[in-house]
Amino acid sequence: MDSIELIESFADFKDEKNIDRITLMAIVEESMKTVLRKRYGSDDHFDVIVNPDKGDLEIYLNRKIVEDEMSEDDLLEIEISEVRKIDPSFEVGEEYTQKIELNELGRRNILAFKQVLNTKIAEYDNSNLYEKFKSIEGEIVSGEVHYIRHKQVILVDEDQNDMILPKENQIPSDFFRKGETVKAVVEEVGFKGGKPLIILSRTSPKFLEKLFEFEIPEIYDGLITIKKTVRIPGEKAKVAVESYDDRIDPVGACVGMKGSRIHSIVRELRNENIDVISYTNNQQLFIQRALSPAKVSSMELDEENKHAVVFLRPEEVSKAIGKGGQNIKLASWLTGYEIDVRRDEPEEEDIELTEFSDEIESWVIEELKKVGLDTARSVLEKDVNDLLELTDLEEETIIDVIRILKEEFEE
Predict the structure, then answer these.
(1) CB hemisphere CA count around 357 (13 angstroms)
(2) Once rounded to an integer, what is the mean pLDDT over residues 128-157?
(3) CA 162 distance to own-chain centroid
(4) Which of 9, 155, 347, 376 gives 20 to 30 Å between its CA and that of 213?
(5) Burial 353-374 (b: 16+ CB within 10 A, else e)
(6) Residue 4: its pLDDT value, please?
(7) Where are the alpha helices (DSSP H) in 166-262?
(8) What is the DSSP letter of 256?
(9) What are the two backbone dihedrals, phi and then psi, of residue 236, each rounded to the nearest 5 degrees?
(10) Which residues contact 4 (CB under 8 A, 6 or more apart)?
């Protein structure tokens, strides 16, 4: 490698890799010192001077001047007689600096230098790429579909950086074509084989939250905060929001007139059904809202064990549970409570026996009341034999009373 090749190499690195001058100097210097260590066992006595603008790379070896025939290390020491051929003013004990020409290192070491330089440039690139994507973890990026595999889709950004969208991070109904632009959130950034591994996700709750932030100005401006998001990707999601301004309805602001603000988000998520819920610190009320669209009749709450038993009218139970149990599952994830649903059967209508005084003689009513049977249903819950044992009434009278009471409820 001559000076011209160095100049071309420096120019390529600066243009292609966009490396600043100081960083490039440090990389070239360290690369050469790596070769010197392999060649001489140490770089302690070498000075490497780099000028990337000109393509200059100068190597100097510092050797101690010793008496003739007293040299113990030809690399680190030089005899006085040899030095004085160059400059008679040198004295024993002084340091002699000798310039090492690049071609003196030999072809093998020069090739090693190029390899080390390329490796360190790649490491620099990989480190920069890692830091770039690490700083935007949790943010949305767009990429073009470059390659579709069975278990993952490879996207490339505008700088041609590879990003991986695994199958498990795709919405079940996602279908991609090569060249298509796809949005996803940066879920994780790591290293594999020394190269940055950028994992994307379209199923993460963070993806939904960021879409809300893009589409709803009040969230972007911080007037509305997303407290928690839970999803069954591609099916249903619940988002709890809170407003710090009493004048702003957080749910209305997120949904928009006739759902106008949320339509684009639903489309991006392949028609995922999104419930937006107003957050509250009142756990009972929050659970009620989380079970929307079902209406809760009453609730038993065990805050210590994070358990809630909710009672609903029969027609509301299916709404609370939802398709495939999705609604109650998401409500549980959102609130952090285990939720049990119970049917709230309405109390059956009952009538006091005294209301039948025009049809049943008063002494008969009093006889029944003596044994604690003071309502129509309390009497009907007993059969004829029970009533015969409990009271002094005749069987014919009891049968007549039962007939009268049944007719009332059958009307």
Answers:
(1) 8
(2) 94
(3) 19
(4) 155
(5) beebeeebeeebbebbeebebe
(6) 45
(7) 205-215, 217-220, 250-255
(8) -
(9) -155, 150
(10) 55
Tokens 């044994």 correspond to what residue? 371
Cα–Cα distance measured from residue 153 to residue 171, given in angstroms and rounded to the nearest whole number: 12
CA distance 62 to 377: 113
- Nearest residue to 379 via CA among 357, 358, 351: 351
Alpha-helix residue ranges (DSSP H) falling in 217-280:
217-220, 250-255, 263-268
Pairing of strands 152-156, 140-148: antiparallel
Instruction: Of 262, 271, 261, 264, give the one whose Cα is nearest residue 174.
Output: 271
Distance CA 31, CA 200 (A): 35
Structure pTM? 0.68
What whole-number percentage of the chain has pLDDT above 70?
91
Q: Are the C-beta atoms of 254 and 224 separated by less than 8 Å?
A: yes
Domains assigned to the chain: 3-131 (3.30.1480), 137-201 (2.40.50.140), 205-343 (3.30.300.20), 353-410 (1.10.150)
Indicate the pairing of strand 224-232 with strand 236-243. Answer: antiparallel
Residue with tokens 């120019």: 11
Least confident of 16-25, 65-74, 251-260, 377-386: 16-25
Give the pair of three-digit tokens for residue 238: 């619940």
Q: Do the Cβ atoms of 39 and 31 come closer than 8 Å?
A: no
Beta-carbon-side half-sphere exposure of residue 237 (alpha carbons within 13 Å): 28
Q: Is the pLDDT of residue 319 over 70?
A: yes
Q: How many CB atoms lie within 10 A of CB 1?
A: 17
Q: Which residue has the higher pLDDT, 345 or 118?
A: 118
Q: Where residue 39 falls among pLDDT bands split at 50, 70, 90? A: confident
Helical (H) or strand (E) element with 275: strand 273-278
CA distance 300 to 219: 34
